Amino acid sequence: MNQGLLLRLESLLQLRGACQQLRALSSRRVCGARWKPGQLSAHPVGSLLLHPQLWPKHRIISAALSPCRHLATKEETKKKKKRIPLTRGEVEIRQRMTVEELAQAMGKDIDHIYEALLYTDIDLDSVEPDSILREDHIKMIVQKSGMKYKSAKLKEEKERENRDAVKRQVVNYPAVLTPRPPVVTILGHVDHGKTTLLDSLRKTQVAAMEAGGITQHIGAFIVHMPSGEKITFLDTPGHAAFSAMRARGTNVTDIVILVVAAEDGVMQQTIESIQHAKNAGVPLILAINKCDKPEADPERVKKELLAHDVVCEEFGGDVQAVNISALKGENLMFLAEATVALAEMLELKADATGLVEGTVIESRKDKGKGPLTTAIIQRGTLRKGCVLVAGKTWAKVRFLFDENGKAVDAASPGIPVEIMGWKECPSAGDEILEVESEQRAQEVVAWRTYVEQQEKMKKDLEVIEAKQKEHRLEYEKKQQKLAHLTWRQRKAVLYKANKHLMFSRPKERTEMDENTLSLIVKGDVDGSVEAILNILDSYDCEDECKLDIVYFGMGDITENDISLAEAFNGVIFGFSVKANESIKKLADKKGIKIKLHNIIYKLIEDLKDELNSRLPPTVVETTIGEACVLDTFSVTVGKNKIPVAGCRVHKGLLDRKMKFKLLRNRDVIWKGCLSSLKHHKDDVQVIKTGMDCGLSLDKNLEFSIGDEIICYEEKEVQQTTSWDPGF
């Protein structure tokens, strides 16, 4: 023990000497310098001082290091002088802060902010941690918390320079313009033979591969004519759900071939297709299909089209009409020649030099290749290595593929091509522009993202202000009702009235309303997802069952989709996508429904069935028998007199086990069960048509002659949604 004490004293003496050396060392250093990281520990004296086991928290160390305190740089000293520390109980606020930011600034938890908001006109149901609070509310919350506020100095944000990419100016020099293939869009009603027509033109079996024989998304490809001309065809879906795709097809096209079935005539999507062509200012060629059928009537089709301002040449108009049979291949060359002749009249030319311009026709995700887009090139020549921008994404072109999946080196104007190398999938219909470098592409994407965020913030702010104005008016009405109370009494009443809201904030709601259907929508291509979302936008039965789209995107079903569905108690709908076995097993384990479809109307039917299952059943009354009260009397049971009705059954039967109701002047005055049912003096269970009986109710109610007794059965029937998606 004494030996340990001696060692301790010896160490103390060593430390005292080390401190003196360190003071001397620090005093010899140049004024304004400071110890660099690791320099003190590298010094033999400093290493002794900083030894963690020998002197862990000894005051002598702080005394030894005290000379180093003044060695900070002049810049740091200036910064410290500039900072004006907040006094205790003072909060630095801005004009707009989120609930979370205000809680952090005040050093409180979010619950404290929610409790303070109970005294305001803000609707607590709509408040989330990232909800923005106005300055007057922020000040009020700070004051209610017994603190003072101090406005932060606003940083003046410089107006950002527009860094967007734009199209080149149109140059009409004949020297740079070269002929290009016409882009032809085939439009028409569903199942009128559009894909079969293209199948016959390019000698492939596209129609057989399509689900249900219905085109689900745009196909873009080239048809080589025997005469050497090329025609680029776009096959757009005819189904009602794909209106946006048809509109997109006409916006990039030169000629529209309107396919009408000879036996069906003009249908709903036929009229819509004519309207799309007119809006785009594109000339029409009429192809009357299925003319080989015995019920075909091409003349009727031409006359029906007159009502929609489509006048064929034989009626004095400028629309060429060709009678064809796509299935048998009849008159297809006449149709192709008519297309080439119209293209020659239009004198279609483009500039194949300079930066590339084009339009995204379709986009999808491929497991091996990543994001892919089908595009039509409109100016310039696209090659591998080009840097492109479309929407809010960009690409450095790695590979180009034609419609058959074969790699190509370049794509000139009017040629459809599949582009590989995108960072993300752009939206169908986005404009493609070539830029000089990857850095420039990133600048363009950053600018477009910034502009979109600013627009979104502006819209959100308008919605928030409108909502807050609405709640402020409600709040003022409540205040007027409490005007006769003192301010303390008013506060107490408001707090009691709103306290329950604090415990049911949206952030704490883990269970969704049973009457809400949460959806995760996945599709093979961007256009398919767009079509499904357009249909869902028409949903107008929120009072029956709420429809909540949690997530939508492209690609196969993933584990992340399962997690989302589990969190929101939702259903996954997939269109032309797959779910591997491991995903299916995981979904079964967690009780998640995955519904996969290849035909859009079947997907919508399945969705309607799912909506029906979420609706509460309705109770339907089925009448079993009817009787009329012919006489009334009463019987004595103990000390009580019980009213009895003498009745005759004139329809069906009366079953004592069932429920009954009493009608007087067609008004229901009682519903319940019978306490007795007798035929003469015998208790019976059933009275049939034409028989007389006496009955009493489970409630002492006086009867009147002419009253009706109805025997009925209640059945629960599943409700069906009244939503009509339009097909």
UniProtKB/TrEMBL annotation:
Any matching Pfam family: IF-2
Start and end residues of each Tr-type G domain: 179-349
Keyword GTP-binding: yes
Listed InterPro entries: EF-G-like_DII (IPR053905), IF2_II (IPR044145), P-loop_NTPase (IPR027417), Small_GTP-bd (IPR005225), T_Tr_GTP-bd_dom (IPR000795), TF_IF2_bacterial-like (IPR000178), TIF_IF2 (IPR015760), TIF_IF2_dom3 (IPR023115)
Entry GO terms, CC: mitochondrion
UniProt record similarity statement: Belongs to the TRAFAC class translation factor GTPase superfamily. Classic translation factor GTPase family. IF-2 subfamily.
Annotated organism of origin: Bombycilla garrulus (Bohemian waxwing)
PROSITE patterns: G_TR_2, IF2
Encoding gene, per UniProt annotation: Mtif2
Protein name per Swiss-Prot or TrEMBL: Translation initiation factor IF-2, mitochondrial
Chain coiled-coil ranges: 454-481
Main location class: mitochondrion
Subcellular location: Mitochondrion
An example Gene Ontology molecular-function term: GTPase activity
